[in-house]
Automatic annotation (TrEMBL):
This is Glycine amidinotransferase. SUPFAM superfamilies: Pentein. It comes from Marivita hallyeonensis. Signal peptide: none annotated. Keywords: Transferase.
């Protein structure tokens, strides 16, 4: 059945077919969470965020919301349906039988929480304590889709316990140093242990029948195995990127633009032995352009490589952050029409254009883009 704006349908099999319906996050009430093992491992050692926590200043929240609202309008003007989450009170502490944390985070990046695969939206386990309840912000939408689309499968992965056993002690040290971090990530020694399945949805890229999953800080091997058993009709493939000292989420590292073409962060190249799978199926992997900035904006977890955190609208059209001049230029050379979208002042709230969105509907079916096994 074709898509119509009057009828809710959940379906998206990949990152590039024509986008019709999407969720865009909100910056409301966003907090810098208190220290906790997995989060601390990701905050860069020289970051201005170290040692601070609490609600973000209201003027930065307002500015981020202004940008997210404008992005929403841009998408709506192109005929794309956009839904928004319902923020909860992120100042509330979270206490479970296994852990306590004094505040939560926010709901700017739905991509981290919601994994859309075909007619299913799966709530990820998550791996930070401050993000344990983030799925609640999306429950009003999930319920609505469930009522309106009889084919929608709403699923949730088992909530993890997130006791101290989930995190490696040696990552708790204040000053590890980049050299050691790079050695550890090359050895696939990440902050999360194999205590229980853990994954963030933003570690997964959807290539039709193939799901490509980053093994790193936010997704462990048991999380990948869980995805494999949960999606038995898919091929679930683990990848990792040794040049990244803080490997969370695949979407500032590996960016498919259309069938046959992937941008890869030149500082975090896919290792040779993992490239063969793409090569033998005629996928070209090209280095992404350099970011336009030398540093992230203030109080931001993410690296400057949010430059490549783009939202593909269809095979010829891509949203790129408006200050990322080199990334825009490269996209044009690759034959894409670029829609510049201002978002940099919202990066600190959880990421870029891919992070702040989650697919609800794209045209197209589940195809096999890797027939040569
Ligand atoms: O490069 O800091 C950011 C990914 C956000 N979802 C990075 C990864």
């Amino acid at each position: 059945m074709n898509w119509s704006p009057d009828k809710t349908q959940v379906k998206s099999w990949n990152e590039w077919d024509t986008l019709r319906h999407v969720i865009v996050g909100k910056a409301d009430d966003c907090h810098i969470p208190p220290e906790e093992p997995a989060l601390d491992a990701k905050v860069p050692e020289d970051s201005d965020m170290r040692g601070q926590w609490g609600r973000r200043p209201q003027e930065t929240i307002d500015r981020a919301n202004e940008l997210l609202d404008t992005f929403t309008d841009t998408l709506r003007k192109r005929g794309i349906r956009v839904d928004r989450p319902t923020p909860t009170d992120f100042s509330k502490p979270v206490t479970t039988p296994d852990f306590h944390t004094d505040s939560q985070f926010g709901c700017m990046p739905p991509r981290d929480v919601l994994l859309t695969v075909g007619h299913e939206i799966l709530e990820a386990t998550m791996s930070y304590r401050c993000r344990w309840f983030e799925y609640l912000c999306y429950r009003p939408l999930m319920q609505q889709y469930w009522e309106e689309d009889p084919n929608f499968r709403h699923e949730a992965a088992p909530k993890p316990r997130l006791t101290d056993a989930d995190y490696h002690d040696d990552y708790l040290s204040e000053a590890i140093g980049i050299e050691k971090r790079l050695q550890w990530t090359a050895e696939k020694h990440f902050v999360t242990t194999e205590e229980e399945p853990l994954f963030d949805a933003a570690d997964v890229l959807r290539f039709g029948k193939d799901l490509i999953v980053q093994h790193g800080f936010t997704t462990n091997l048991k999380g990948i195995e869980w995805l494999r058993r949960h999606f038995p009709d898919h091929r679930v493939r683990a990848v990792n990127f040794p040049g990244d000292p803080y490997p969370i989420h695949i979407d500032a590292t590996f960016t498919p633009l259309r069938p046959g073409l992937i941008l890869n962060n030149p500082n975090r190249r896919l290792p040779d032995e993992q490239r063969d799978y793409f090569k033998k199926n005629d996928w070209e992997i090209v280095d992404a352009a350099q970011p336009a900035h030398n540093t992230p904006p203030p109080l931001c977890y993410s690296s400057t490589w949010l430059s490549m955190n783009v939202l593909v609208l269809d095979l010829k059209t891509v949203c790129v952050e408006a200050s990322e001049v080199y990334q825009m230029e490269q996209m044009e050379k690759l034959g894409m029409e670029v829609i510049p979208v201002e978002l940099r002042d919202a990066y600190a709230f959880g990421g870029g254009l891919h992070c702040c969105t989650a697919d609800v509907y794209r045209d197209g079916d589940c195809e096999d883009y890797f027939p040569n096994q």
